[in-house]
Amino acid sequence: MCTSLSSSYRCDAAGSTVRPGRLVFYTRLLADRNTSVVHRWYRGDQLRQSIRLEVPARRQGFRTFSRGTVVASDGEWRVELRSRDGQLLHTERFTVR
Fold it and tell me: FRET partner for 4 with CA separation of 20 to 30 A, picked from 19, 23, 58, 64?
C-alpha cells in the first residue's frame, strides 16, 4: 500500500494507519500466461470498489496498481488481491484516522 507511486514505481509506503485521501495498491506479479486479477477495496465489510486488472504473461514479472480514496471518517479498511477465479491471494489492512 502506497500513499503515492511514481512513474518508475517508487512506492511511498502507507503504513497501518493512514489519513483520509488517495491510496495506491501496488502489485507485482509473475504470470506464465495472460490472466487478470481483481483489487477489491473494502471499508469494514462494505465493498467500495472492485477493479479488474489485466496481467500479461511475462517471465520478468508485471507491475500494476489501483487507486482508492478513503473517506474522512475513521474506520477499518482492507484491499484484497484476488485471482481471476476469485481465489484470495493477498490482503492489506489499514486504519483511517
Answer: 58
* pLDDT tens digits along 44-94: 999 999 999 999 999 899 999 999 988 777 799 999 999 999 999 999 999
Give residue 13's domain range.
2-96
- What residue type is 65 in one-letter code? F
Cβ neighbours of residue 70 closer than 8 Å, sequence gap 6 or more? 18, 20, 21, 23, 43, 77, 96
CATH code assigned at 44: 2.60.40.10
Cα separation, 66 vs 43, in Å, equals 16
What pTM did the predictor assign?
A: 0.90
Torsion of CA 29, 68, 16, 12, to 10 degrees: 70
Nearest to 48, CA basis, from 65, 27, 25, 70: 70
How many domains does the chain divide into? 1
